[in-house]
Amino acid sequence: MGARGPAGPSSSAPLAVTMGDPAGIGLDITLEAWLARKPHALAPFAVLGDAAAIAARAEALGLDVPVETIPDLGQAAEAFGNRLPVWPITCAAPVAAGQPDVRNAPAVVSSIERAVEAVRAGAARGVVTNPIAKSVLMADGFPHPGHTEFLGALVEAHFGIRDVRPVMLLASAELKVVPLTVHIPLKDVPKAITTRSIVATAHILHRSLVADFGIAKPRIAVAGLNPHAGEDGKIGDEDAHIIAPAIAALCDEGLAITGPHPADTLFHAAARATYDAVLAMYHDQALIPIKTLAFDTGVNVTIGLPFVRTSPDHGTAFAIAGTGRAKPQSLIEAIKLADAMAQRRTAAHLERVR
């Protein structure tokens, strides 16, 4: 089947913001982000979710956010200045903050699916996803480990692109980092690391740094797997036999890439000045440093897709949903980054077709 790229959204097309699990803080921070639209100069966005639940959460939080249901995303930009536009997806069960309900799992999944279809049709410029609770979705039969893997499946279904390789990139002003392996047990990490996967992921990261972040000649640092990057084979041989050959091959291709570096000395300020992004070997090796440096402002980006997707770098936080304690900064940064990435991709597309 031939690939179908995005239809080319106009500059007035909104960002599509999914509702995430409606019992979590996604609704809270989306409302707060809309209220912060002017001081942060946020691009217009529309929420794909339950309008009644969103309005009820605004009332419960004491937030003055008028909600407008729109029949299509083309009306979002006009409404956005004075009202929060919602493209309606009705939840099957009543929504209670902090109390996830598996009956609402289909609506959560539908929000993501419709957002992807919207960017494919050109009705949206990018997708910003609110946090989901994977355990709730899996209780309803959701077969994917997380958002990233689900988005890869949707690309195959909606774009007709086979063998898509979505890659998780965590981004902030302080650090950009990719975990080579993501949602797998730590005991399975060593056998999941291959020279081929390192090379493929580094290529995707390099292309994104150029196209999405405007870095003309990206510098990538690769973390070792073992303590001290194996210490010349004394603490494991994966660094020398798997990771180092990948770096050598990438250097031969002309990429500015170094390593394997001991992970314990790779993330302090002086080290961060020597690279633009890190390719780490596993989930916590990547996420601990960025969440330490930028817990409230980090953004989860899925690269390797034919459209822009960002997300706040945190979970559903059911314990504080509806309390007014949720911080919207990460979602605000996700919206700003999605807008910037979409603008760069549009400019590059226009340059290619001239």
What does this protein structure show overall?
39% of the residues lie in helices and 15% in strands. The protein has twelve helices and twelve strands. Strands 3-4-2-1-5-12-11-6-7-10-8-9 form a twelve-stranded mixed beta sheet, with helices on both faces. Helix 9 (238-252) links the parallel strand 8 and strand 9 (256-261). The longest helix is centred in the last third of the chain and has 25 residues, at 329-353.
Features of this protein?
single chain; 354 residues; alpha/beta; twelve-stranded mixed beta sheet; 12 helices
What is this structure's SSE topology?
Layout: E1 15-18, H1 26-35, E2 45-49, H2 51-61, E3 67-69, H3 76-80, E4 84-88, H4 105-121, E5 126-128, H5 134-139, H6 147-159, E6 167-171, E7 176-179, H7 189-192, H8 195-211, E8 219-223, H9 238-252, E9 256-261, H10 269-272, E10 277-280, H11 283-293, E11 299-303, E12 309-312, H12 329-353
Parallel strand pairs: 1-2, 1-5, 2-4, 3-4, 5-12, 7-10, 8-9, 8-10
Antiparallel strand pairs: 6-7, 6-11, 11-12
Helix pairs in contact: 4-6, 8-9
